[in-house]
Amino acid sequence: MSVPVLARDVRKTYATSSGDAIALAGVSLELRRGEMVALVGPSGCGKTTLLNLVGCVDLPTSGDILIEGRRTTDLSDDELTLLRRDRIGTIFQFFNLLPALTVEQNASLPLALQSVAPDEIAERVRTALELVGISDRARAFPAELSGGQQQRVAIARAIVHRPAIVLADEPTGNLDSKNGAIVLELLRAIANSGQAVLMATHNEAAAAICDRTLHMQDGQWVYSYAG
Q1: Distance between CA 143 and CA 8 in Å, rounded?
Q2: Full-prediction pTM beyond 0.85?
Q3: What is the C-alpha separation between 197 and 188, in angstroms, rounded?
Q4: What pLDDT score was predicted for residue 140?
Q5: Residue 39: how many CB atoms within 10 A of its CB?
Q6: DSSP single-letter state for residue 160
Q7: At 226, is the secondary structure helix, strand, or coil?
Q8: Would you list the DSSP string of 177-202?
Q9: In the chain, where does DSSP find H-type helix?
Q10: Which pLDDT value is given to residue 227?
Q11: What is the pLDDT of residues 39-85, one digit of tens each?
Q12: Does residue 167 contact residue 91 with C-beta atoms inside 8 Å?
């Protein structure tokens, strides 16, 4: 069975008014099921660009990104949308919850997009909210929650459709140390359950809970280590 994520000599270049800007300069990565990998490096080193490529919201200039064996550059826009919807969950630094929707409504969005039956949506949302410890606030709105609680809702939303891959872009960046630790424990539990987790972070303490840490600079790996 194919690994969830395989990147081979991936390069990404953006055209600017002053010439081409190189965001990734030949990156290769294999991310396995049950593995949590941290991307560490300064702002602008290519972490978010790589997450966007793995998340099927952008395509490489050259090289290959394979998601469960499917090369993203071979897929149509509709196929990329379905792959992103069904097989990938994303957690953002700024939560990205919809303010007019309750906690349970925000968490249910991926399933609603898949046209899952209402009874199953209710059960899976309940399970996801219980997993992240926020089920008691199911009827609350985002403005009524702390930052840590909002991020837990965002995690529930990212896993409720049972994706193969969970991407996290600075998931503790807007949290205090206590809530950051809770979020990292949840991400670790997600990986332990068999999903692949790829996290971009500036925080070396966050990276310490991962199976591998990959340090990036100027769009390339500088070095990596296990544990």
Answers
A1: 42
A2: yes
A3: 8
A4: 97
A5: 26
A6: T
A7: strand
A8: HHHHHHHHHHHHHHHHTT-EEEEEES
A9: 47-54, 77-87, 103-113, 118-131, 147-159, 177-192, 204-207
A10: 64
A11: 999 888 999 999 999 999 999 999 999 999 999 999 999 999 999 99
A12: yes
CA separation for the pair 46, 29 (Å, rounded): 13
Q: What is the DSSP letter of 227?
A: -
Beta bridge partners of 196: 165
- What sign does the CA torsion over 42, 221, 52, 153 have? negative
Q: How far is CA 121 from CA 17, 115, 157, 163, in A?
A: 47, 9, 12, 15
Return the HEC string of 98-118: CCCCCHHHHHHHHHHHCCCCH
Q: How far apart are CA 226 and CA 208, in angstroms?
A: 9
Q: Does residue 155 contact residue 91 with C-beta atoms inside 8 Å?
A: yes
Count the helices and strands in the chain (H runs, E runs).
7, 10
Does residue 5 register a pLDDT over 60?
yes
Percent of the chain with pLDDT over 70: 99
Strand-pair partners of 214: 39, 224
Kindly indicate the confidence band of residue 197, based on its pLDDT and cuts at 50, 70 and 90.
Answer: very high
204/219 Cα distance (integer angstroms): 19
Of the ranges 71-75, 96-100, 166-170, 179-183, which one carries the lowest mean pLDDT score?
Answer: 179-183
pLDDT at 1 over 90: no
CA 199 vs CA 10, 49, 101, 139, 146: distances in Å: 18, 12, 27, 29, 22
